[in-house]
């Protein structure tokens, strides 16, 4: 038990020593960053001296405005380059993923969705037209043709056969023949 206690105490002592070292390193890094920031600002941003006359002040404003435009153009260029490289990285990682061939298709869930909901999902807030598919169907009017009229007038052929079948039907046929 004494050995266990000693090992536990030693482990805790080592942990606390490591934490103290980490805290001191973080503090050193923060101080170094602050010094680096101060050096950069001193190098790139000279102290501002405001001129006394109005014309000199306007010239200073024009210079500052020109610098701001240059910085904005540079920032925009770097953003475009970053987006381009991100897109290239994404494409390359997709190609690599496809070449490995070890991808699983996710299980698809069946979703009931009306045509309106589907258009709203695809088009977003632009979709304002209500799409009732049944309303757009073509109406077909059934026209009575001469053949259908003739068939209706003749009636059901089964009735005629039933009447003529058997002895009663033959009797009727015989009487009709006379």
UniProtKB/TrEMBL annotation:
The keyword Repeat does not apply. InterPro entries: Troponin, Troponin_I, Troponin_sf. Keywords: Acetylation, Actin-binding, Coiled coil, Muscle protein. One of its GO terms (cellular component) is troponin complex. GO terms for molecular function: actin binding. The keyword Acetylation applies. Signal peptide: none annotated. Binds to actin and tropomyosin. This is Troponin I, fast skeletal muscle. It comes from Merops nubicus.
